[in-house]
Amino acid sequence: MESRVLILAPHGRDAQVIASVLHGAGMHSLVCADAATLLAELAAAAGTAIVTEEVLGRGLDEALRDYLVQQPPWSDFPFVVLATRQASRRSAQAAASLERLGNVVLLERPVNPETLVSAARSAVRARARQYATRRHLLDIETAKHTVEQLNTALETRIAERTSDLAGANDRLMREIAEKERIQNKVVQGQKLEAIGRLTGGIAHDFNNLLHAVSLNLQLIVRLGSDARTTDFARRAKESVDRGARLTAQLLSFARAQSLLPRVHDVNALVANLRELIEVSVGSKVQVRLELVEGQAWALLDGAQLEMALLNMAVNSRDAMPDGGQLTIRTRVQQAAADAGASRVQISVQDTGCGIPEALQGKVFDPFFTTKPEGEGTGLGLSQVYGFVRQSGGSVEIHSREGEGTTVTLQFPLVVPSLQEATAGQARSDAGGGRNGQAERRVELLVVEDDEAVRQGIAEGLRLLQYSVREACDGEGGLRELRRHQPDLIMADYLMPGMNGAEFIAAARKLYPHIPVLVATGYADMAEVERLVGTESILKKPFDLETLNAAVAAELARARTHRATRA
After folding, report:
1. CATH architecture of the domain formed by 5-129
2. Which residue of 400, 449, 466, 550 lies most exposed, with the fewest beta carbons within 10 A?
């Protein structure tokens, strides 16, 4: 019900043609005979509605007014309006009718079927995120109701026993304070979880847009012959890269960033980062390292940890405008036999101005900052929070005004195998899409549901002298595989119907040893890592050089594997 497309196009065969196009694209639709039927079906549930502009002129917008005004805060129902080609500007009345609908995508007829399907899918995806927000809010409301019930029960208990337990009043007050602290912590965690899920969905869509723009700008730079045009493209690519870093921080807060965890010695990572931290904080700040003796191994994404430490170091620098001391400590906290796992701790301590107690519960919220307007994005600590939690760890902050701040990260301690401690992976050059002595061009199958991203990847690979076939979803990819086996599969993770992991599993049933690259910017990668390993994951957005190197490395691994089996 929540994903269906309602159609109101009463003239001729318009409604039947629209429904047929949507059905061919695998979308569920319902043709409404009149405005009353459309209103009744909207009340039931729908993903979007496709209506013709002439219907609006007959009062449909007035009939929809009550429905639109009464929408709950989470809802902004999307409409796709099929407009008649205008010889001149629309009348004020027609423009007002469109404006009253609010969330509108306007398509001028005649409409290309692919454009219609793309608009409908975008509207349904947007509506699905609204429904997801509603569900998250209902998670939150239930928790709030539970907290209220606990408070009510506690107050009743106190009222009943006050006369008999006057002597135990101090103990009860301590219990109440502790319960309130825990309840506030639970509510704060639920709030961050809900914001993170919404943020992750939005950031994923932006990531795909940036990825498509980035690849096409790189194609312009490589193929353009005009120096000014290529210079413009390079400058635009720099802006796209900044946007990509922003979405990466949002995805990290949402715990939806594609991490590539490996076993690292935390001491070595911190020591190697010292020089960069010293440059980042400036000469007024003295940097001091206090590292635990020996090695402290943890399973995490080393690049993300380095980014987290740099974010915290820059925050500390800003809290010490007149200079001070920044101390980074590592410690191994050995757990007792009955106290759970041992932990690796990394703390960043400064002697700065500190954070007011009233603000400490908000410091991990995205876009929250204590810095003046125009300074900082407010995403530094939210990136730290998301990365640590996604890595199975925890983060705490302790601060007193005028005495400084300490942020402590904790990760599970691991014992590395000899292979993990000494691992190294050599990449080889594919020779412009050719495999050593092979006579033919290497053929790749690209499976990606976003058309702009898929075309950008495909054109980039062809520019790199690879032969490319394309599919827009998992089912289409399997059909291509049944026709002919490519040399390598490159698949997106988050696709409608069949996700990347499910597609890879099905592809491996056809060709058990076929090499695979998974491209993603938003996913819980545990399932994919079990199938292909972290070395076969390519994080969006990526450039052509990274793409070429990843394809070359995957083909080289496949050749090595075949030689070993032989």
Report:
1. 3-Layer(aba) Sandwich (3.40)
2. 400
